[in-house]
Amino acid sequence: MNEEMQEAVLAGIDPEAIARDTLAFVEVTSETGAEGEGSLFLADLLKREGFDVDLDEVETGRPNVYAKVPGSDRSAPALLFNGHTDTIPVGESTPPGREGDWITGRGTEDMKGGLVAMVHAASALRRSGVELGGDLWLTGVVGHETPVGRKEGPRRLIEHLGSGKIAASAAVIVEGPCAVWAASLGSAMFEITAASDRGPIHTIKVPYAENPARWLGELLAEFSRLERGFEALPHHPLCGRQQLNVGIVRAGDWFNRLPVNFEVTGTRRWTPGVRCEEVRAELEQLCAQLGERSGLSFEVALSNEREPFETPADHPVVELLCAAAEMVSGSRAEVVGMGLVGDANLYANDGGLTTVYYGPAHQTAHSDDERVAVSQLAHCAGVYALMAARFCRRSSGDCT
Ligand SMILES: [Zn+2]
Question: How close is the Cα of 114 to the center of ligand 1, in Å?
């Protein structure tokens, strides 16, 4: 794409139109589990801009939304833009509105603004007559926000990636910091239980050394030891270090009655290069040793396992986003990582799809004053458009 064409694409992005569409989208309530209206809004927006839309009911009234902008060269790389149409509960969030450069309301930053920017980017490409080589997919999914969402929308999309119904060489999720977010830790929730075969008898009958509560303390001390070990390991340059933390501890029901069992629930996060199975083995080994020393029966359960993801800095999806940011705003985008686990962990590991995020900001998501800057959305639309034009260029190379 020559400079003139780039100028034409960027000139076709209208921040005020993005602002109007984002506000209208946020005025549609689409909490996880009941996000159908949000998906339909996205579908209508795509149709209004002239794209063919496929609604894929993941559950009754809860469709994923797909639009394919067909390219002209089957051998050129295809790109997939993705976001989720559900939001966490509206709750006490600032109501939908406009305050200067800001659109307020639940779902603005996370992530209706990004989806609108994605549609406007594709629209600007089409109106400027940019011919894509590879296909460009514009997708919105349901069921993202846990615990109500069980990733059913992303998993349906992964099925289509597996069957070849949807094919792409890379994906950009249109939320997150205004930087290329190219790595996340892996994560799992763990639940460790330990049970004594004694009944709930008076503590006068049981030495403290044999009390499950004493072994609960031992387990927590072992966690401290593990944590010190993680601190000492080399930290991942983008997403930091391995972590273990505890959220729920339960044991006992009366001051002088033996607690017959205890339960410790928390989160374990690990760096790219480490696998979930290693984490599981480490916890199982720790509990086996404590079981031997205490005579208690320990059990370890992991759930919500997500392997880490990391997209190399020299992958075209990263390079082209960095370069597009420079073309739009004068400075190259940073490449960052986060501890936070998201859908890229799934698309990369379960879908085999190289994935990164690039969004307007990651500041107010899930807060009660959620908002997004129109100027940031316009920036993103420009970045998405220029990046897609280059990524999906015809293999003859005349689009660079
Ligand atoms: Zn989100």
Answer: 10
Nearest CA to 379 out of 121, 140, 128 is that of: 121
Tell how far the Cα of 330 is from the centroid of ligand 1, in angstroms. 27
Q: DSSP per residue over 72-103, as a string? A: S-TTSPPEEEEEE--BS--TTPPPSEEETTEE
Instruction: Kindly give the distance from the C-alpha atom of residue 217 to the centroid of ligand 1, in angstroms, as a whole number.
Output: 37
CATH of 186-306, one of 3.30.70.360, 3.40.50.700, 3.40.50.300, 3.90.980.10: 3.30.70.360
List, for residues 13-44, the tens digit of each pLDDT value.
Answer: 999 999 999 999 999 999 999 999 999 999 99
Q: How far is the CA of 110 from the centre of ligand 1 (A)?
A: 4
Stretches in the chain below the pLDDT threshold 70: 396-400
Question: Ligand 1 centre and the CA of 272: distance in Å?
Answer: 22
Q: Which superfamily is assigned to 3-183+309-391 in CATH?
A: Zn peptidases (3.40.630.10)
| pLDDT of res. 147 | 87
Distance CA 228, CA 396 (A): 54
C-alpha 128 – ligand 1 centre gap (Å): 30
Q: What distance in angstroms lies between residue 109's CA and the mean position of ligand 1's atoms?
A: 8
Ligand 1 centroid to Cα of residue 84, in Å, is 6
Same fold, 3-183+309-391 and 186-306: no
Instruction: Tell me the per-residue pLDDT of 251-297, one tens digit each, with 9 for 90 and over.
Output: 999 999 999 999 999 999 999 999 999 999 999 999 999 999 999 99
391 is written with which tokens? 């990524």
